């Protein structure tokens, strides 16, 4: 593991621009996914087909270095984290990324399967067309559900990368007030750390931007002739709101956990 690389984090205003870059791709993928039917069996059970599909895709991603140190991408089906430890050679001064052991992906998967998947429509007409009718089977075969599962994976990876940018949000905030944060970290005071991190004005702006993206991108589908139900835009706006509300909460949790391990 290449933790000997030293990564300085950008300023908070720059990181918020980085976070904003995720909104259109996330909502755009949400629109694509919601335009396909849902087969609940792909997401049910102890080891659902989605999990197996993710595992195969992530094995490939590991080989491509997608989860290397400092990428802020973390797999759902493998544990790859070696947490940093301060040494006399590297004391991790404020402003330097410090890898902690927390991954928010279990929270994301739970939200995806328990909240987002049930709000997808099973009677939507699929836009993939197979002469074999393989997209219309009643019993799904994950090998034939590549279209839907592939969008699930893309969406989960975007959500995950966005949430783990929380690690550098936390470092930027730590750098802004090391004395206060150090005191709270030493006291293991997670609640006060969470309160100090929260910025409701910023949250409102993230949610408003996500709603704008939901309106614009669903409009674009309708205006370009997609055969979607008249409820499509409302469905997308509701899904986008739930998604970003949850994403902010998971991002915040990743920030809190990062800080709790910051002095290791
Ligand atoms: O921008 C920040 O200050 C963040 O901590 C990020 C974020 C977000 O997820 O967008 C999370 C928590 C804050 O309450 C506001 C926004």
From TrEMBL:
Q: Give the matching InterPro entries.
A: Chorismate_II_sf (IPR036263), Chorismate_mutase_AroQ_euk (IPR008238), CM_AroQ_sf_eucaryotic (IPR037039)
Listed EC numbers: 5.4.99.5
Reaction it catalyzes: chorismate = prephenate
Q: Which GO terms describe its molecular function?
A: chorismate mutase activity
For this chain's UniProt record, which GO biological process terms are given?
chorismate metabolic process; L-phenylalanine biosynthetic process
Location of this chain's protein in the cell:
Cytoplasm
Its main subcellular localisation, reduced to a broad class, is cytoplasm
Query: Which keywords does this Swiss-Prot/TrEMBL entry list?
Result: Amino-acid biosynthesis, Aromatic amino acid biosynthesis, Cytoplasm, Isomerase, Phenylalanine biosynthesis, Signal
Entry GO terms, CC = cytoplasm
Q: What name has this protein been given in UniProt? A: chorismate mutase
